[in-house]
C-alpha cells in the first residue's frame, strides 16, 4: 500500500531521469567490481571457509580429515589430552612458538623502521631525477626469488661461510662463530627479506613531505631533533603505519626464512602450521593454528591502527 | 621586548666565521656613505636592525655557477617597514633566505644589531619568517601553530597560552583557534602565519611575498593589516614583493633589485619621483621613454633637445654625467594633452583612449615615431575637452616632469 502510494507521487521528468541515471551508474559500478569480487571470492573467501570448516573436523590417520565435528583442534592448541585418564593438561608449546614469532616480527619491524627511515629520508631528499634510481636500487632484491636469496645468506653466515672464513683468514678468530641455525640467523634473514617493504612506503610519504614546513620549524627555533619529532615524523605517519604493517604481518607468518636459516630447530608460526599438513598429519590443527594467527593479527591491527590514526588526528 | 632573545643571540662565544667568507670580506665594502654599484646610499642616523655588507651568494659549481646575489650591501633600520622589490629571479628571496638563515652567504656579512649572524642556523636567529606558501603545520591546530615557536624556545606553558591568546586577538582569529589549518580559508591561513611568526617576538620579521596568493580585495585588506601590525608591534619588517604598488603603499623604504644587485634604496616617493636608473623607472609605475640629445647641463639639470628641435630641462641623478644621446623618462601623469598641436612641446596623433574609471589613458603616436607616449588624465565631472582617436594633439610637460637616466 505505502509503496504504491509513494511511487504514485508524480516525479518530474528530470528527477526521473536523474534517478534512472544514478541507478544505471550504480549497476555499472557493481559490474565493474565483479572481476575483483570473483577473485577475492574464489581465492580468498572460499579457502578461508574451507579452513574454518576443516578446523572443526577430526584428523584422519594418514592426512586429510574425517567428516565428524570436533573442537579438538582448538583444545589441542593449548592443552594435551592425557592418554591414560583423558584429562586435559595445559601445554604452552604452541603458545611459546606464537610468542617467539611475535617477538621476531616486532624486532624485525622496529629494526626495519630504524634502518628504513634514514634510508627513505635520504632517498626523498635527493634531486628528483636521482630518486627513481634509488627506488630501483631498493627493489633489486625483488628480482630474484626469496628462497635463492635466503640460501645465499646461508652461504654467507655458515661455519665455512664468507664471514667466518674472512675472520679466520684475518686472524680475528680461530674457531668459526656459529651463526647459522640460530635465532640470530632467523632475525637477520627476516630483516633482509622485509627491509624494502619498510623503505618503500616510508619513501613515498617522505617524498610528499613539504620541506618548507621543515624550514618553517627551523625558523621557529626548533632544533634538528625537534624538527624530526615534531614535524617530519608526525607528517610521515601514514608511511610509518603502512611500512610497519607491510613488515609485521608477513614477518609473523614467515615460512621460508626460519625454515632454512633456523634449520627447523627454531620454529616460527609458518613452519608450525606447515608441519601439521606434512609430517604432523593433523590438518584440523593446522587450520586452527592458521585461524588463531589470523585472529591475533586482526586484533593487533585493530588496536595499532586505532591508536596511531588517533594520534595523527589530535596532533 | 627584545630581552627574550638575549640568550639566543648574544651568546658570548659565537662560532668563528666560516673560512669561505674570509677572503672576500671587506674588499667590496662601500665606505660608510660611499657609492654602491654607482648608486649613492645615504648613511642615515638611527640604529640599524640589519646590516648586509658585501654579501655574495653563488649557487651551483663550475660552469653552472650563478650569482644570485652580486655583492649586495644595505642597511635596514629599526622599526622600519623595508621592502625588497624586484622581478622574479632578481635575488630578493635569496637575500631574505640569507637573513633567515636557510642559506649561507658565499661572501660577506649579515649583522643583526651589530652582530654577525651569517654563520648561525635559523633556530639561533631572533628572526622569523612568513612564508609565501604560509607553511602552516597541517597536523596542528591554529593555536598550536601559533604557539610552536614559543614551545621550541622552552617557554612555560602559561606564558605560551597567554601569548597565543594575545596573538589570536591581534590577528582576529580567536574564534578559529581550535581549527586545523586545512579547515580555514587562505586569508585566515595568512593571518595564522603572521601570528605564528610574530608570537616569539622576533627582532626582525621577514615576509616572503605573503600576499601573492590572496585575491585582490583580500590583498588590499591585508596590506592595511600588515601596516597596522608593524605599527603595533614595533618590529622591523622586511617585505619581499614583485608588486610595485604593494611596495609603494606599504613601505617606509624600498630597495629595488635586479639581476642580483640593489639598484636603488629610498622612500617610495624617492623611488617613484627620482628613479636612479632606467630599470627602476620602468619597473615602478608606468613610464614614457623619450629619446633626446643633451645640449648643456648645469647643477644637476640638463637641457635636452628633441628631434623636432623643442627643448626641455630635465634633472638627472647624482653621480651620473649625461652626454650626447640620452633617454628621458616622463611619468604619464606629469604630462598633459593640448588640443592645439602648435602649443605642445612634442606632437602626435591620438591612437587609443583607455578608460580606467578613476582616470583615462591617452595613447599618443608621436610624430617622430618610436613607442606610444601615454598621458594620464584624472577623470572629473567637468573634463574641459573631449578628445577623439585620430586627432592631432600636442603634449606639454609639467615642470620637473622629465629626468635623464642611465640605461
Structural commentary:
The complex is a heterodimer of chains A (315) and B (407). Chain A is mostly helical and 315 residues long. Chain A contains 15 helices and 4 strands. Chain A folds into 2 domains: 82 residues, no CATH class; 222 residues, MetI-like (MetI-like fold, Orthogonal Bundle). A two-stranded antiparallel ribbon of chain A has the order 1-2. In chain A, a hairpin with a 5-residue loop joins strand 1 and strand 2. The radius of gyration of chain A is 27 Å and the shape is flat. The N terminus and C terminus of chain A are likely disordered. The radius of gyration of chain B is 25 Å and the shape is globular. Chains A and B meet through helix 10 and helix 11 of A and strand 8 and helix 4 of B.
Number of domains of chain A: 2
Overall radius of gyration of chain B: 25 Å
What would CATH call the homologous superfamily of the largest domain in chain B? P-loop containing nucleotide triphosphate hydrolases
- Which sheet architecture does the biggest sheet of chain A show? 2 strands, antiparallel
Order of helices and strands of chain A: HHHEEHEEHHHHHHHHHHH
Helical fraction of chain A equals over 70%
Note poorly predicted spans of chain A.
Answer: 1-8, 311-315
Count of helical stretches of chain B:
10
Tally of individual helices of chain A: 15
Mean pLDDT of chain B: 83
Domain unit count of chain B: 2
Q: Which stretches of chain B are low in confidence, meaning pLDDT under 50 for 5 or more residues running?
A: 1-45
Q: What about the largest sheet of chain B?
A: 6 strands, mixed
Given helix and strand content, the structural type of chain A is: mainly alpha
CATH topology of the largest domain in chain B: Rossmann fold
The backbone outline of chain B, from C-alpha atoms, is: globular
Give the termini distance of chain A in whole angstroms: 54 Å
Amino acid at each position: 500500500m505505502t509503496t504504491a502510494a509513494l511511487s504514485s507521487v508524480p516525479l518530474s521528468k528530470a528527477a526521473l531521469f536523474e534517478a534512472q541515471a544514478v541507478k544505471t551508474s550504480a549497476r555499472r559500478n557493481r559490474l565493474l567490481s565483479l572481476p575483483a569480487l570473483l577473485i577475492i571470492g574464489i581465492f580468498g573467501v572460499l579457502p578461508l571457509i574451507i579452513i574454518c570448516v576443516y578446523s572443526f573436523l577430526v584428523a584422519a590417520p594418514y592426512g586429510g580429515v574425517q567428516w565428524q565435528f570436533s573442537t579438538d583442534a582448538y583444545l589441542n592448541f593449548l592443552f594435551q589430552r592425557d592418554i591414560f585418564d583423558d584429562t586435559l593438561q595445559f601445554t604452552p608449546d604452541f603458545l611459546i612458538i606464537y610468542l617467539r614469532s611475535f617477538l621476531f616480527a616486532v624486532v624485525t619491524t622496529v629494526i626495519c623502521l630504524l634502518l628504513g627511515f634514514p634510508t627513505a629520508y635520504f632517498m626523498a631528499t635527493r634531486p628528483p631525477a636521482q630518486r627513481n634510481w634509488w627506488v630501483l636500487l631498493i627493489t633489486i632484491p625483488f628480482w630474484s626469488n626469496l628462497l635463492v636469496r635466503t640460501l645465499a645468506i646461508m652461504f654467507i653466515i655458515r661455519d665455512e661461510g664468507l664471514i667466518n672464513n674472512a675472520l679466520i683468514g684475518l686472524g680475528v678468530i680461530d674457531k668459526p662463530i656459529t651463526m647459522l641455525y640460530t635465532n640470530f640467523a632467523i632475525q637477520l634473514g627476516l630483516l633482509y627479506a622485509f627491509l624494502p617493504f619498510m623503505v618503500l612506503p616510508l619513501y613515498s610519504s617522505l617524498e610528499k613531505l613539504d620541506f618548507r614546513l621543515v624550514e618553517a620549524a627551523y625558523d621557529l627555533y626548533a632544533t634538528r631533533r625537534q624538527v624530526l619529532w615534531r614535524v617530519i615524523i608526525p607528517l610521515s605517519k601514514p608511511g610509518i603505519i603502512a611500512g610497519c604493517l607491510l613488515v609485521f604481518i608477513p614477518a609473523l607468518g614467515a615460512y621460508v626464512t626460519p625454515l632454512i636459516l633456523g634449520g627447523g630447530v627454531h620454529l616460527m608460526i609458518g613452519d608450525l602450521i606447515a608441519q601439521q599438513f606434512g609430517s604432523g598429519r593433523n590438518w584440523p590443527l593446522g587450520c586452527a593454528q592458521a585461524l588463531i594467527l589470523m585472529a591475533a593479527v586482526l586484533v593487533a591491527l585493530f588496536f595499532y591502527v586505532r591508536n596511531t590514526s588517533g594520534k595523527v588526528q589530535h596532533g | 621586548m627584545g630581552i627574550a632573545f638575549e640568550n639566543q643571540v648574544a651568546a658570548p662565544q659565537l662560532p668563528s666565521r666560516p673560512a669561505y667568507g674570509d677572503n672576500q670580506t671587506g674588499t667590496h665594502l662601500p665606505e660608510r656613505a660611499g657609492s654602491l654599484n654607482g648608486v649613492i646610499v645615504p648613511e642615515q642616523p638611527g640604529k640599524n636592525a640589519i646590516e648586509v655588507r658585501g654579501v655574495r651568494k653563488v649557487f651551483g659549481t663550475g660552469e653552472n655557477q650563478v650569482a644570485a646575489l652580486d655583492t649586495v650591501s644595505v642597511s635596514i633600520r629599526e622599526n622600519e617597514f623595508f621592502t625588497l622589490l624586484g622581478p622574479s629571479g632578481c635575488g630578493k628571496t635569496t637575500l631574505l633566505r640569507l637573513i633567515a638563515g636557510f642559506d649561507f652567504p658565499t661572501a660577506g656579512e649579515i649583522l643583526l644589531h651589530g652582530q654577525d649572524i651569517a654563520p648561525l642556523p635559523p633556530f639561533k636567529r631572533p628572526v622569523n619568517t612568513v612564508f609565501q606558501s604560509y607553511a602552516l603545520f597541517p597536523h596542528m591546530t591554529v593555536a598550536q601553530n601559533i604557539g610552536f615557536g614559543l614551545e621550541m624556545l622552552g617557554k612555560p606553558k602559561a606564558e605560551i597560552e597567554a601569548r597565543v591568546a594575545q596573538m589570536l586577538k591581534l590577528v582576529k582569529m580567536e574564534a578559529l583557534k581550535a581549527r586545523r589549518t586545512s579547515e580555514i580559508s587562505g586569508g585566515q591561513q595568512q593571518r595564522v602565519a603572521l601570528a605564528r611568526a610574530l608570537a616569539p617576538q622576533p627582532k626582525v620579521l621577514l615576509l616572503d611575498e605573503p600576499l601573492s596568493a590572496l585575491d585582490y580585495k583580500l590583498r588590499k585588506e591585508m596590506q592595511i593589516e600588515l601596516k597596522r601590525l608593524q605599527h603595533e608591534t614595533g618590529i622591523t619588517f622586511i617585505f619581499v614583493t614583485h608588486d610595485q604598488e604593494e611596495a609603494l603603499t606599504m613601505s617606509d623604504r624600498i630597495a629595488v633589485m635586479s639581476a642580483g644587485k640593489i639598484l636603488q634604496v629610498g622612500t617610495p616617493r624617492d623611488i617613484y619621483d627620482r628613479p636612479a636608473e632606467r630599470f627602476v623607472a620602468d619597473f615602478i609605475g608606468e613610464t614614457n621613454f623619450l629619446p633626446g640629445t643633451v645640449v648643456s647641463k648645469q647643477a644637476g639639470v640638463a637641457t635636452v633637445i628633441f628631434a623636432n628641435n623643442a627643448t626641455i630641462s630635465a634633472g638627472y641623478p647624482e653621480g651620473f654625467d649625461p652626454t650626447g644621446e640620452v633617454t628621458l623618462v616622463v611619468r604619464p601623469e606629469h604630462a598633459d594633452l593640448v588640443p592645439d598641436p602648435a602649443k605642445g612641446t612634442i606632437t602626435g596623433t591620438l591612437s587609443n583612449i583607455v578608460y580606467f574609471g578613476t582616470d583615462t589613458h591617452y595613447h599618443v603616436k608621436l610624430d617622430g615615431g618610436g613607442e606610444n607616449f601615454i598621458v594620464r588624465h584624472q577623470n572629473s565631472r567637468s573634463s574641459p575637452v573631449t578628445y577623439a582617436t585620430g586627432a592631432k594633439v600636442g603634449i606639454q610637460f609639467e615642470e620637473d616632469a622629465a629626468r635623464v637616466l642611465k640605461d
